[in-house]
Design goal:
There is one protein chain. This protein is of the alpha+beta class. The chain has seven helices and nine strands; from the N terminus they run αααββαβββαβαβββα. Strands 1, 2, 3, 4, 5, 6, 7, 8 and 9 form a nine-stranded mixed sheet that branches. 32% of the residues lie in helices and 29% in strands.
Length: 256
């Protein structure tokens, strides 16, 4: 009975005050090192998160800034499990209109070409993303904050010259997107993780960014649900024989 009681107590999510306190510690000590500026949750948001509900909304990060979509959830898994799910993203499955090719990778970064098929008469879109782990934030936070962010290749469309000929041919006629920037931030909170996902995107052409943001917002709950499900199964998936994955500072994560 005592063991059962302990398991019930240990499985209780942090309170709104505890989540807010963990967040304020990050804001006070690590905000300058995050790659994607931090949102400002309200007291109502903390109560919502403490109840186990996902927050998903659209907002502007500052005067003149473009639309950004945000998702936050407390997940009852340690940061490392969610991190594995994010890095092991090929299992998440892309929507059928997306295709991608990996162009290069290191323990803390990855370069991806992505192509979006759109219905006629809208031209297809494509881009090259560079994703990086935030080594400094991870170390300076005492390994409590894990961030993986991405942005367009700074060379712009000129980076397409690096593509293999067959991949480059698939993108003929596609428009290079002018904005695609976002990231995951995982913050240890209690025995679990406060997961934060943010995205700013503009697909260019005549499609305004607020319509793109509205579409992205509609997909957030499914994205967080899928990531949570992948995190739940990592203990039986990231085992001997799996390709190596690494912490934000490039240290191999031991397989289960």
């Amino acid at each position: 009975m005592l063991a059962l009681l302990c398991s019930i107590v240990c499985a209780t999510a942090p309170t709104a005050a505890e989540l807010a306190a963990a967040w304020q510690d990050l804001v006070a000590s690590g905000a300058a090192r995050v790659q994607i500026s931090l949102p400002s949750p309200t007291a109502d948001d903390w109560r919502t998160l403490a109840s186990g509900t996902t927050i998903a909304r659209r907002f502007r990060a500052g005067e003149g800034a473009m639309n950004r979509v945000l998702a936050m959830r407390f997940i009852d898994q340690p940061p490392v499990s969610i991190w594995l799910a994010i890095l092991d993203g090929k299992h998440a499955g892309l929507p059928p209109e997306y295709s991608e090719w990996q162009l290069g990778a290191t323990p803390t970064s990855k370069t991806l070409y992505q192509h979006l098929d759109l219905p006629f008469p809208i031209a297809d879109r494509h881009w090259i993303l560079i994703a990086n782990s935030n080594r400094e934030l991870y170390r300076d936070s005492g390994r409590t904050a894990w961030e993986r962010s991405w942005a367009l290749d700074p060379r712009g469309a000129a980076a397409l010259a690096d593509l293999p000929a067959d991949v480059r041919a698939k993108g003929e006629g596609a428009i290079w997107t002018p904005k695609n920037r976002g990231g995951w931030l995982l913050l240890a909170a209690g025995w679990g993780t406060l997961a934060v996902y943010q995205l700013e995107t503009d697909i260019g052409g005549w499609v305004p960014d607020h319509l793109v943001a509205a579409w992205a917002l509609s997909t957030l709950a499914k994205l967080v649900d899928k990531t949570t499900a992948l995190a739940d199964r990592e203990v039986t998936h990231y085992v001997a024989g799996h390709a190596p994955l690494y912490t934000p500072d490039g240290v191999l994560i031991p397989r289960y």
